[in-house]
Specification:
By secondary structure, this protein is mainly β. 12% of the residues lie in helices and 35% in strands. Strands 2, 3, 4, 8, 10, 13 and 14 form a seven-stranded mixed sheet that branches. Strand 11 and strand 12 form a beta hairpin. It is elongated.
């Protein structure tokens, strides 16, 4: 019975250690795996959903390498005009910052085949005037820890354009 308890305790500690390793520390100093680089990630995007005068989609990143790598912070996101010029930079915000719990920046340990994501959202009307907003022809995104910019054919409003921190997994993941 004692060896069974020891085995169970050892397994529980191993699982706890693995869980702690998935989302660690509050800064890059806590990283144990190297940063995900330009060639480590596959890019994807969810469908656009609307709610209460706002719209949003989720940027998806999948580690396609055979090694763990880390992501930290925010992706870059720019609203682009049809002529290729930037018309707005997404403001970096924290999820839940309007009230309740705040999701801050974390080092994301992304296992091989693992996913990370960041939410992009905007207002569908001008909050100052309640009038219309200018919409982009598309967006350019750059994953955290990388310099590779990927264009997306997603139109976004430049009113209250925001991007949230990168998190492990993604919204709606089952």
């Amino acid at each position: 019975m004692t060896s069974l308890r020891t085995s169970i305790t050892t397994c529980m500690l191993a699982v706890a250690g693995t869980s702690i390793g998935l989302v660690t520390g509050s800064g890059p100093a806590g990283a144990t795996a190297p940063a995900c680089g330009n060639s480590s990630l596959d890019y994807g995007v969810s469908r656009t959903d609307g709610f209460a005068g706002h719209s949003a989609f989720v940027l998806l990143y999948r580690n396609h390498t055979r090694s763990h790598c880390t992501l930290y912070g925010y992706p870059g996101l720019d609203a682009m005009a049809s002529n290729g010029h930037v018309i707005a930079h997404a403001r970096r915000t924290l999820l839940g910052s309007a009230g309740g719990s705040r999701q801050g920046l974390r080092v994301i340990d992304l296992p091989p085949g693992g996913f990370a994501s960041a939410t992009v959202e905007w207002a569908n009307f001008n909050p100052a005037t309640s009038g219309p907003c200018r919409y982009s022809a598309g967006v350019d995104e750059t994953a955290p820890n990388t310099t590779r910019t990927v264009p997306l054919r997603r139109s976004v409003s430049i009113c209250s354009l925001q991007v949230h921190p990168t998190v492990l997994g993604w919204t709606g993941q089952s």
